[in-house]
Amino acid sequence: MQVTAENSPVIEVKGLAHSYLPGTPLETVSLHGVDLEVRGGETVGIIGPSGSGKSTLLYHLNMLMRPQKGDVRVFGRSLNDPAADAGEVRRRVGLVFQNPENQLFERYAGDDVAFGPRNLGFSPSEVRERVRRALEMVGFPFLFKDRLVSSLSTGEKRRVAIAGVLAMDPEVLVLDEPSASLDPSAKNDFFKIIERWKKVPGRAVVMVSHSMEDVAELSDRIYVLVKGEVVLTGTAREVFSHPDILTRHGLTLPIPALVIERLKAEGLPVRSGAFTVEEAIKAIEEIIGA
Amino acid sequence: MELLRIEDLYYSYEHQGAGDVSERSFALRGIDLTISPGQYVAVVGANGSGKSTLLRHLNALLVPTAGDVWISGYNTKDSSALREIRSRVGMVFQNPDTQLITTLVEDEVSFGPENLGLPEDEIGRRVDWAMAAAGVTELKSRPPHLLSAGQKQLVAVASVLAMRPGCLVLDEATSMLDPVSRKSVLDTVRRLHSEGMTVVLATHSMEEAACAQRIVVLSGGKVAIDGDPHTVFSRERMLRELRLDLPCTVRIARGIHRRLFLEPSRLSSVETLVRAVLAAKGERSVAGDG
Amino acid sequence: MHKSPEFELSLKLSIGQFIPGSSLVHRLDPRVKIIMAVLLILSGILASRLAAIAMLFITVVAVLFSIGVKPGLAFRALKPVIPFLIVLAIIQMFAIPQLREDAAVIWQWRWFTLTDKSLVSGVLLIGRFVVIVLGLSLFSFTTSTNQLIHGVEHLVRPLGRIGLPAHELAMVVHISIRFLPILVFEMERLMMAQASRGADFGKGRGLKRLRRLFPLFVPMFIISLKHAHAMAEAMESRCYMGGKERTHRVRLKLRSADYKAAFIFITVVGLTLAVNYIPVRAIY
Questions:
Q1: If DSSP codes are grouped into helix, strand and coil, which group holds residue B2?
Q2: Is there a contact between A205 and A198 (Cβ–Cβ < 8 Å)?
Q3: Which of C142, C135, C137 is nearest to C67 (CA)?
Q4: pLDDT by residue for chain A (290 residues), tens digit each?
Q5: Which fold has domain B4-235?
Q6: A→B interface, C-beta within 8 Å
Q7: By the CB < 8 Å criterion, does C79 face chain A?
Q8: What's the CATH code of the domain at A100?
């Protein structure tokens, strides 16, 4: 994809290295020199086995961690620059943690959503407006602000937590295991919210997930992170066309791709590269006739 | 003989209502269920359908508000029977970290037998057997909290097995795991089932549910569907209303316009779908236009 | 290139870190090590003479070098405390009036008076601290949490025979230790989540600063309760019903190495106390 003004990289990671407890006998290297790019308008998926450094990588994207080695540039500004403003970066790059409903602390839902905007120093009327828009984006009416957090279901709490991040008006959304512990219907609702949010041109999404099917369905490009290194990257189609590399590193294919691979292994002339349900259907119909 | 009998089970609890008042809600509204020895039952339902609540009645962590739960002839309301009940029905929970109590795997697996007051040598025998059955013998001198999530869950399985239960209950035990760990836990469960263990598994992954012989679908605290996977997966509309999905392979099969000898609802695993496609392709070739 | 100073607190703990090894001290019975640690701390507190503290210091350092761990690690544990120590020592040396009575003045500037007594007193203060911190580091480097728990549990057992809730006490210690890494991890993740929403925990002072920690208190409280509940369910599911009728797989046995080590250690402590209390003239 040509890099143009409309989709120039909003996040650029070059040679990022990180280790925990450096210089002690317990030093563990978590990232070995990672290169990664996120461009406006795209959804980037990051997959990898546990312990591959995915979370550590995410924490660098909004300056929760500063690079020990290498560079992270957000909207053109290097995070190594001593003048880099963490507050500004964290406003523009919104990070949604795993099980975000655990971070709610206010009594009323509206107050918790307002936490972010208030920290950013907006006036009370601006804060109200942002809370209203954020609640609407996650499917709640403005009146929801007066609901007691303790009376909400887990799914509702999660939506409030996400609204809390959306209220900061980020340009990049970074999601860590967004569908963890969600049932299929809640998961679909969630991804609809993200798609709607992403409609504004220039916005980008970075998603870390264990669910190969979700990543396959939603990502434009994927990075495969194993033991702190990027072992494979490309469009979703390119990445899932290398099942040997994926299985070698302890990863599985999305189920539709698994089906196609098994059919290929049985000698059928099925077209490779299908990784969603729709594509698998088409590929199978091609060889057995509709 | 392990026999779980649930008669007209109702369970209610108090919680915070929408308007700062305490409310009483029913999580279970009249469940009738019998599970025979050696069965492999999956319990599915959206979040809030009552899955976890139901499971907790199986080992008397919760007792009915109304109705009865009988485990091998013991009533769960009988507090003097707790030891009998809990040594016959072992439970593995969702969070790998908080169900591990000790700082050494060997200690973890012996925790249960120690609670039963068994003599030292018997404890040693059970620990060795249980670790082997769960495939964690090489981990025996490691601290549990330093293991991967998948390994932790297998240690949890071992520590439950050491009680020598006839029935293993898993409450979304794989939902916090990556796909490879999930597979290794499910394979272990499948192996134990083939050796005679009764299994009750709560999940919202339809792929996982498809491995069971029987699927109980809960909604709003009631049993909505109870049958083998084929029966359950042929009720697509109902599943959708219950905010559940079909397994990936069933969705693919449904999307293929050409008939595949077997109905889509029977094709709930990659293997069966692949074989059905092969058979369909074979038929075409035989007909002369393959 | 520098690490963010705000996070990774779980990794900053240098006391309390077990470093696997096979030295003599690593292999001692944990009960012996616990008692030695306690005695070391008591001796350190009681020592009121430079010679006594010096003996303890030399002993601890000698053992530290013998366990095969980089001694630098133990001294790392002292780093954060040094400024605090220096302030205390200065106060001790210059500002305690009792130490000025019948003592030879060594140095004086305005109202800061350094006497021979107060100098000794300041050095003793630092010495005690260092001995205790190094001793605790030594203990934690060579004793895994698991060994510690078994040691405590065994030591406390006799109390059970006289009717005290020994097992439950040991279980409380056990669970607290077990919970610590979980809670530290949750706290850290929570801090990062709130910081991602613009929270700044460093700013402000006094009550304002406390208010800023609110987004941490409530969720930590809730998540701790959730985890405690989950752990209780897991324990009950495996028939945990307190200490009654409970057996144990592990039975600690003292070996000759333990007796020898205990003997040597008690000798050292004895000598230290002798040096400390037996009046000798002109030590300084």
A1: coil
A2: yes
A3: C142
A4: 444 455 678 999 999 999 987 777 667 889 999 999 999 999 999 999 887 889 999 999 999 998 999 999 999 899 998 888 888 999 999 999 999 999 999 999 999 999 999 999 899 999 999 999 999 999 999 999 999 998 898 889 999 999 999 999 999 999 999 988 888 888 999 999 999 999 999 999 999 998 888 999 899 999 999 999 999 999 988 998 888 899 899 898 999 999 999 999 988 888 877 888 999 999 998 888 75
A5: Rossmann fold (3.40.50)
A6: 49-51, 147-148, 150-151, 153-155, 180-186, 210, 212-213, 250-252, 255-256, 258-259, 262-263, 266, 268, 277-278, 280-281, 284-285, 287-290
A7: no
A8: 3.40.50.300
